[in-house]
Amino acid sequence: MLGQVETNDLGEVMQQIAEHKGCGTSSEGGKASCGSSTAPEDMAPEVWEKVKNHPCYSEEAHHHYARMHVAVAPACNIQCNYCNRKYDCANESRPGVVSEKLTPEQASKKVLAVASTIPQMTVLGIAGPGDPLANPEKTFKTFELIAKTAPDIKLCLSTNGLALPDHVETIKGFNVDHVTITINMVDPEVGQHIYPWIFWNHKRVTGIEAARILTERQMQGLEMLTAAGILCKVNSVMIPGINDKHLVEVNRAVKSRGAFLHNIMPLISAPEHGTVFGLNGQRGPTAQELKALQDECEGEMNMMRHCRQCRADAVGLLGEDRSAEFTTEKVMEMDIEYDAEGRRAYQQQVEKERQATVAAKEAELADLVQEFSDVKILIAVATKGHGRVNEHFGHAQEFQIYELSTEGSKFVGHRRVDLYCQGGYGEEDALPTVIRAINDCVAVFVAKIGGCPKDELKAAGIDPVDKYAHEFIEQSAVKYFKEYLGKIKSGEIVHSKRGDADIRQGAFIAA
Ligand code: CLF
Ligand code: SF4
């Protein structure tokens, strides 16, 4: 049964598809021009087949497709200084949230329940709460059950890499196309400050020796995976003062071994998490520090910037959390009929929506190529997904950040914020933190916004824009940027460069 919300969204989408007059054919920025039916020029078609519907491996796909995790792997074979065993594996999840642990059979039923309710859920990942390969029986039993009952769902795995070389053959045997390894260092001198111990060959190993074994096993596992044709994403936790500068070297090392994607994530650290880093006051990076490092590493290798550090039982589009709808108690009561045909039909409509999104952006971009300007700005967008400006300012728990230049629009990250609207009223205390989170942005695109936050945003020099409500994000962003350049040319606004983004000074642009 398809969820009501999704069905309504698709009705609207179908209307827009009917109005859409065609589909661009050129490629831009290494992205496919026409939805998932066309691979980007620089990507082999078989690789595109693997990434096109994976919300983590394709930034564009993450607006349209969902993933889910099942928490079947409680044990871990190493200790990271940013982890407290009470919580999920912090390599792929936020500290401070705990998952309900499942048996492979419970997990299998949960996957069917989610797949039947959220037909755009295309990927099942196992990412904890410990390390999936420290729990190989439970992990592979779960994959076996899913491969039998829901063969259209892609299988995905995230590991610290210590046990990886022992399992590459089995991973390949289950047709797992995507494996993530968390690699925070390639130098044991650095590693000793991140990993106090590992459990290796039936004993605990500590210090530099532990880090040396771990890095050797991670590199070996990465090489084996890429040799086996399995797409490999590398996650790295950015820890200021410990591995932040070193991650450039990590980037080079994993790129040379064939990693497909590098995801540099911020350390999340607070005393209440009870981790070594939390207790000793180790800070995480600022959003600007993270972006600078991601920019530095961006070259021939794709950088992931849309990671939400989701929990080990996450369900839904990246950035939304529908796990509460699928507790074990609720799932066990569900009478599930797996409708593979219905899922296929729904996903075909999603593909049409996706094609319309890309084509609209390209049409908007067409006359931007004649512009010559080095102006670069950031905008923040409130969205519930589907690539549209469709969230109210007060309901946004995160803003997606796009960088705009004459090259077009580029997703560069997201910023989590406190909910401004609580129970129908604006939360005055939350507004300054929202403004701080997006204060390097020239504008914020929203579906709706109240008078009070609008005025405060304007006072902070951020343009609250609601005229693109329910329109495609990237098409609207390019449109806005063109108007913006026009206002610079006419002298309506003055510009100066600050950091890596141009920050507007002087006159405020009215929405
Ligand atoms: Fe899960 Fe990870 Fe597979 Fe994605 S998450 S196992 S690759 S299906 Fe994705 Fe979540 Fe970031 Fe992970 S946003 S934490 S990168
Ligand atoms: Fe914790 Fe994951 Fe590190 Fe294991 S690998 S110690 S579960 S963060």
Overall description:
- The chain has helices spanning 4-19, 45-51, 104-117, 136-149, 168-173, 188-191, 207-227, 247-256, 276-279, 287-297, 328-333, 340-365, 430-437, 451-459, 473-489; strands spanning 66-69, 78-79, 121-126, 154-159, 178-182, 197-200, 203-206, 231-238, 261-266, 302-303, 315-316, 377-381, 398-405, 408-416, 421-422, 425-426, 443-445, 463-465, 494-498, 501-505.
- The chain is an alpha/beta fold.
- It folds into two domains: 65-332, Aldolase class I (TIM Barrel, Alpha-Beta Barrel), CATH 3.20.20.70; 362-504, Dinitrogenase iron-molybdenum cofactor biosynthesis domain (Nucleotidyltransferase, domain 5), CATH 3.30.420.130.
- It has an eight-stranded mixed beta sheet with strand order 10-9-8-5-4-3-1-11.
- Strand 17 (443-445), helix 14 and strand 18 form a beta-alpha-beta unit.
- Helix 1 crosses helix 12 and helix 12 runs parallel beside helix 15 (473-489).
- The longest helix has 26 residues, at 340-365.
- Residues 1-37 and 498-511 have low confidence and may be disordered.
- The structure holds FE(8)-S(7) cluster and iron/sulfur cluster.
- Residues 76, 78-80, 83, 89-91, 130-131, 160 line the site of iron/sulfur cluster.
- Iron/sulfur cluster is lined by residues 76, 78-80, 83, 89-91, 130-131, 160.
